[in-house]
Specification:
- The protein has 2 domains: about 210 residues, 3-Layer(aba) Sandwich (D-Maltodextrin-Binding Protein, domain 2), CATH 3.40.190.10; about 210 residues, D-Maltodextrin-Binding Protein, domain 2, CATH 3.40.190.
- By secondary structure, it is an alpha/beta fold.
- The N and C termini lie far apart (about 65 Å).
- Helix 9 crosses helix 10, helix 9 packs across helix 17 and helix 10 packs across helix 17.
- The protein has 18 helices and 13 strands.
- It is globular, with a radius of gyration of 23 Å.
- The strands form 3 sheets. Strands 1, 2, 3, 6, 11, 12 and 13 form a 7-stranded mixed β-sheet that branches.
- The structure holds alpha-D-glucopyranose.
- The site of alpha-D-glucopyranose has 13 residues, from helix 9 and strand 11.
């Protein structure tokens, strides 16, 4: 009998350990092809290391991804062990104490941090002196255009928003006779984080911004009102952007519309390129990528986005989690993510790879966009500020509220939040 109890406990423990072995979990979201790719990458990691990993598939929308991580983290649950975080909410996660410091692992394994973009690591991944995450890929807003249509109508690639408007109006009119669904310009205007990125690009490229030179909030400036009015007019006055811009348009909706051949210009992140160029894409071979236009009076600006990897402070599998993090950040994986998915790698050394240069002909545009990157405020309460912006900018572009009134109200609310925290 004793023997039986002993063996039951012994085999029970072995079983539990095996089960635990299955429990290394990683949460990532994205477009369907990206998730399939993650699945492939993870299987390779399993083969190499024998460590079993479960992929937790998350939505594409960053706000939803954040929500689905907050639930287990608030409850101090060990799963997921590893996850990707948007640069926009990483600060909040670090301030909540949800991220495992990586310094000891880095030191022990002489993991070379200098290979990663230093300004990004220093300003985003280090929190109160501790390294809490590392960049998997860096996003910058880009302008995609239909090369074939610009050529057909003898139009230039626009450098200014005014030019874009002119070209889009002309070509939309002509193309509508063939395709009634055709629009000049598609971009992200739904009420969510992506809208804040688009807004930031428009206002910065007009010479405005969220703050003045002293760092005080200055949302309701003349320049910002002008830029927001332009955003609204694209939909309601010039009608070169569809009415569902402010109800539905997120990354994937925008990407699909352009990819179906229903738009001339598209604002999107680097990931869209690979999909537009895929074999089943109706626009394959017909597109170009360039920097976003600026207003006549301003300079091009690309919202700085991107996803960083971290280990949960509550993971009970941290050593194996670190192995997975290292694998994802290795030169080889980073190169493949760039070539196969079109991402901007978080590692700087990969950009010099000849194979990468060959496979991503627009690599210089990607790199150049970094020089015009505009970051969202890197404060732990950023998501609260963003929620206000999402509401009021969306109200303005939908026509429910005048741009000036919307910015005034948003500024008041944001000021209140800033006062609460500072
Ligand atoms: C992309 C960016 C991210 C941004 C999001 C907005 O995923 O990488 O930083 O917050 O788009 O939709």
């Amino acid at each position: 009998m004793h023997r039986f109890v002993f063996f039951s406990i012994f085999f029970g423990l072995i079983f539990l350990n095996c089960e635990k072995g299955h429990l290394l979990t990683i949460a990532v979201g994205g477009a369907p092809n990206e998730l399939d790719y993650w699945e492939k990458l993870i299987r390779e990691f399993e083969e190499r290391t024998g460590i079993k990993v479960k992929l937790i598939r998350q939505p594409t929308d960053t706000d939803q991804r954040r929500q689905s991580l907050i639930i287990p983290l608030k409850a101090k649950k060990p799963d997921p062990d590893v996850f990707l975080m948007d640069i926009a909410w990483l600060g909040g996660f670090a301030a909540s104490g949800w991220l495992q410091a990586l310094d000891d692992y880095v030191k022990r394994d002489t993991f070379d941090l200098t290979k990663f973009f230093k300004p990004v690591v220093t300003s985003v991944d280090i929190y109160e002196g501790a390294l809490v995450a590392l960049p998997v890929y860096i996003d910058c807003g880009l302008l995609y255009y239909r090369k074939d249509l610009l050529e057909k109508y003898g139009c230039p690639v626009p450098r200014t928003w005014e030019e874009l408007l002119q070209v889009a109006t002309l070509i939309q009119k002509k193309e509508r006779t063939r395709n009634p669904r055709f629009y000049g310009f598609v971009w992200q205007g739904a009420q969510y984080e992506g809208l804040v990125c688009n807004f930031l690009e428009f206002i910065t490229s007009a010479g405005g911004g969220l703050f003045d030179s002293l760092g005080n909030i200055n949302l309701c400036s003349k320049t910002n009102i002008h830029a927001l009015t332009f955003m609204k007019d694209l939909i309601h006055k010039y009608k070169i952007s569809p009415p569902n811009t402010y109800t539905e348009m997120k990354e994937e909706e925008v990407r699909i519309s352009f990819q179906n051949g229903d738009a001339l210009f598209e604002r999107n992140w680097p990931y869209a390129w690979k999909l537009h160029e895929s074999n089943d894409s109706p626009v394959k071979g017909k597109i170009g990528v360039t920097l976003l236009p600026a207003f006549k009076t301003g300079k091009t600006a690309s919202a700085l986005g991107g996803w960083h990897i971290g280990i949960s402070a509550y993971s009970d599998n941290k050593e194996q989690a670190w192995q997975l993090v290292k694998f994802i950040l290795s030169y080889e994986s980073q190169k493949r993510l760039a070539i196969d998915l079109g991402w901007n790698p978080g590692r700087e050394d990969v950009y010099e790879d000849p194979e990468l240069k060959h496979n991503l002909p627009h690599i210089n545009v990607l790199k150049e966009s970094f020089n015009h990157a505009v970051a969202r405020p890197n404060v732990p309460y950023y998501t609260r500020l963003s929620q206000i912006l999402q509401i009021y900018v969306n109200a303005a572009i939908s026509g429910r509220m005048g741009p000036e009134e919307a910015l005034k109200k948003a500024e008041e609310k944001m000021r209140e939040i800033i006062h609460t925290y500072e």
